């Protein structure tokens, strides 16, 4: 029997699912090796079915989503969190740092009572055990396929904890931080994108979240020396993976 | 002697659409008594989290509204912000923005046509089943989708949430060799886009005759994509700044997305609306092929949206070839400006229809207020009206047939439900 694969969406933009749908023939080849049990955007729709591998896109931001993730956990073998929303609460977690929850709802909706949202936008690991986290906003599709290949073969997959700086040097890009005096989060951001932003001549903005040994305090000093005001420095870290950078700051300074 | 009979049908989760929504229909005495397209995608509060951000951060933030059309969000945003900052894009920047957008149209339309819509017209449940029946067509579609992604990567580094676009232009001008390689691939694929159009024109699209207003951008220079005035086939002709005087959003209890109405009425945006408003801007050979396939423009059959998508894939691929043919890298791929306070609007044609933004900046260039009206919020009332028209006659139909028809109608709009849930403060009308 083929292993059963389910793809589940929570609060998100659908970008990580699209990374899978964008695989073209690679997608068709993958689908021959698994039984795609649940992936509503692609067709199969069986939310209650048990699966061997559950791919989770999106953050948990409503009471209904908290219930749903627990049910999926209970009937899944390996549970994989995909991307910045599922691993760090996503950009929508910016509301966590403010009084936002109910205030934003009231500001945006004339009848806020129709809208049920939780006060915070949470990563999947805040509520259930996660077997593997793939980072990025969006995830890197090649990394997802490599991870699925490993899991389908009964092996393990662990993304690198190194920083973007290493990828950037290997790609031969000039350093935007040193060479162009552009603020760049590359030194503290997890590798995985292939140093995409420096390749465009701009600073990394941290969409893969903090690297394993991120020293935020030191980089903030570098930014201050470039003349960046404190609020602009804080905004750089309070972005796509704000919650993860906040936690990394508490851990390593 | 019709017996009083109440039937209700619930589609708890719509398949093959982007994002999550549901449909409820209730029939009483053979007539539709209630119909609700429920969008329960949780709100992400983008308009609020933009507040206090510097204008330069906006393109990277709004991309995250939608994985399927991030470039559209970036292009509407930069247009609005440049209006405030007093930046006028150079011909090189304008051409590259149009090229960037062509990539997104090709990618998004091909994904919708092959992965989401086509299975409906071949009696399949998914693209996996369809691939067994129509292997060559599916392969061709996935290849074209990938070419759209290649165009996005050329200017944006990656196709989902690209990082190359900025206020004022692009971070970098790709080299001539990169452009040549891409151009060769696009040229080679032109016959495949022609074949895609032939394939879709042969689909057994259902007959339907409905009255609706089509709203789309219109540009004196060509088929409107990234610039133009907001026009309709009923004589509307306004600039982006006048949008709020004519269009208003309403909250409905059954949906987290707003219903946007034009002068109080539902209207259509998206590929068919564009074709209806801009048929005279299409190349003659494409118009002739539509005519031969029995599609007269303006069309009142919403199912012709599928044909419109295939037309736009071909058109966008030809445009991309044209725009790359005399490509030369530019030393200054972007313009810079100092911060300036003010208010500006931007509107472009996302794959699913007009995408309108308005920003207010303070004197430091920080966003004071943002308002975003995505295409799906604009189409929602029209989708409900179409469902009511299509399903009225099916009160006695067996549930599987009713379900299939309802899903086919909804999918035909390619609703982008993730996008549909961010909006803004509005005035309650009493």
UniProtKB/TrEMBL annotation, chain A:
Pfam family membership, one: Oxidored_q6
Domain of life: Bacteria
Annotated source species: Sulfuritortus calidifontis
CC cofactor: [3Fe-4S] cluster
Keyword entries, A-Z: 3Fe-4S, Iron, Iron-sulfur, Metal-binding, Oxidoreductase
Protein name as annotated: Coenzyme F420-reducing hydrogenase gamma subunit
Keyword DNA damage (UniProt): no
Alphabetized InterPro entries for the sequence: Hydrogenase_assoc-protein, NADH_UbQ_OxRdtase-like_20kDa, NiFe_Hase_small_N_sf
GO molecular function, a single term: oxidoreductase activity
PANTHER family (UniProt xref): COENZYME F420-REDUCING HYDROGENASE, GAMMA SUBUNIT, HYDROGENASE SMALL SUBUNIT
Lineage summary: Bacteria, Pseudomonadati, Pseudomonadota, Betaproteobacteria, Nitrosomonadales
Domain NADH:ubiquinone oxidoreductase-like 20kDa subunit: 13-151
Keyword Zinc-finger: no
Automatic annotation (TrEMBL), chain B:
Residues given in the record as Ni(2+) binding sites: 66, 69, 416
UniProt-annotated binding residues for Mg(2+): 47, 372, 422
InterPro entries from the UniProt entry: Ni-dep_hyd_lsu, Ni-dep_hyd_lsu_Ni_BS, NiFe-Hase_large
Gene3D superfamilies, per database record: Cytochrome-c3 Hydrogenase, chain B
Entry keyword annotation includes Thylakoid: no
GO molecular function: ferredoxin hydrogenase activity; nickel cation binding
Signal peptide (from-to): none
UniProt-listed Pfam families: NiFeSe_Hases
Binding positions (Fe cation): 69, 419
Protein name: Coenzyme F420-reducing hydrogenase alpha subunit
Source organism: Sulfuritortus calidifontis
């Amino acid at each position: 029997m083929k292993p059963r694969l389910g793809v589940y969406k929570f609060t998100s933009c659908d970008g990580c699912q699209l990374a899978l749908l964008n695989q073209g023939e690679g997608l068709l080849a993958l689908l021959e090796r698994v039984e795609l049990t649940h992936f509503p955007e692609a067709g199969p729709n069986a939310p209650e079915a048990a699966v061997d591998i559950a791919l989770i896109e999106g953050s948990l931001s409503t009471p209904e989503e908290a219930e749903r993730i627990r049910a999926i956990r209970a009937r899944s073998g390996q549970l994989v969190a995909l991307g910045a929303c599922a691993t760090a609460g996503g950009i929508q977690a910016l509301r966590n740092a403010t009084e936002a929850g109910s205030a934003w709802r009231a500001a945006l909706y004339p009848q806020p009572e129709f809208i049920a949202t939780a006060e915070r936008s949470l990563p999947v690991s805040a509520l259930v055990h996660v077997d593997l986290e793939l980072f990025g906003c969006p995830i890197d599709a090649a990394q997802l396929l490599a991870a699925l290949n490993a899991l389908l073969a009964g092996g393990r997959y662990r993304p690198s904890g190194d920083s973007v700086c290493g990828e950037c040097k290997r790609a031969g890009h000039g350093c935007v931080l040193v060479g162009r005096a552009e603020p760049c989060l590359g030194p503290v951001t997890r590798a995985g994108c292939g140093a995409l932003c420096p390749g465009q001549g701009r600073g990394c903005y941290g969409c893969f979240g903090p690297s394993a040994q991120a020293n935020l305090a030191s980089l903030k000093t570098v930014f201050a020396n470039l003349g960046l005001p404190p609020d602009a420095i804080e905004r750089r870290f309070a972005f796509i993976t704000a919650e993860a950078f906040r936690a990394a700051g508490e851990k390593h300074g | 002697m019709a017996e009083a009979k109440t039937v209700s049908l619930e589609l708890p989760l719509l398949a093959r659409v982007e994002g999550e929504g549901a449909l409820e229909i209730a029939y009483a005495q053979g007539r539709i008594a209630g119909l609700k397209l429920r969008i329960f995608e949780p709100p992400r509060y983008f308009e609020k989290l933009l507040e206090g951000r510097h204008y330069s951060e906006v393109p990277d933030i709004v991309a995250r509204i939608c994985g399927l059309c991030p470039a559209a969000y970036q292009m509407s945003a930069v247009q609005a912000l440049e209006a405030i900052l007093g930046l006028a894009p150079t011909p090189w920047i304008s051409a590259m923005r149009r090229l960037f957008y062509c990539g997104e149209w090709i990618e998004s339309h091909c994904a919708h046509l092959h992965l989401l819509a086509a299975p409906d017209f071949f009696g399949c449940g998914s693209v996996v089943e369809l691939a067994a029946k129509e292997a060559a067509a599916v392969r061709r579609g996935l290849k074209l989708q990938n070419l759209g992604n290649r165009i996005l990567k050329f200017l944006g580094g990656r196709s989902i949430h690209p990082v190359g676009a900025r206020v004022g232009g692009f971070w970098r001008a790709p080299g001539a060799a990169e452009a040549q390689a891409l151009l060769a691939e696009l040229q080679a694929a032109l016959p495949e886009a022609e074949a895609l159009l032939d394939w879709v024109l042969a689909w057994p699209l259902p007959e339907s005759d409905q009255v609706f207003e089509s709203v789309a951008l219109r540009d004196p220079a060509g088929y409107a994509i990234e610039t133009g005035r907001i026009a309709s086939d009923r004589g509307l002709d306004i600039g982006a700044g006048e949008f709020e005087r004519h269009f208003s959003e309403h909250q409905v209890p059954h949906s987290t997305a707003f219903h946007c109405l034009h002068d109080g009425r539902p209207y259509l945006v998206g590929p068919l609306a564009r074709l209806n408003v801009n048929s005279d801007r299409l190349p003659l050979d494409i118009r002739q092929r539509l005519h031969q396939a029995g599609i007269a423009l303006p069309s009142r059959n919403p199912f012709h949206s599928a044909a419109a998508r295939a037309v736009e894939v071909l058109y966008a691929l030809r445009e991309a070839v044209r725009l790359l043919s005399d490509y030369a890298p530019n030393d200054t791929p972007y313009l810079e400006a100092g911060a300036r306070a003010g208010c500006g609007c931007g509107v472009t044609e996302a794959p699913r229809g007009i995408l309108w933004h308005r920003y207010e900046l303070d004197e430091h260039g920080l966003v004071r207020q943002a308002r975003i009206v995505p295409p799906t919020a604009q189409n929602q009332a029209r989708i409900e009206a179409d469902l009511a028209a299509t399903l009225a006659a099916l009160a006695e139909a067996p549930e599987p047939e009713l379900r299939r028809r309802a899903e086919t109608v909804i999918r035909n709009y390619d609703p982008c439900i993730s996008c549909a849930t961010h909006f803004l403060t509005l005035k309650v009308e009493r």
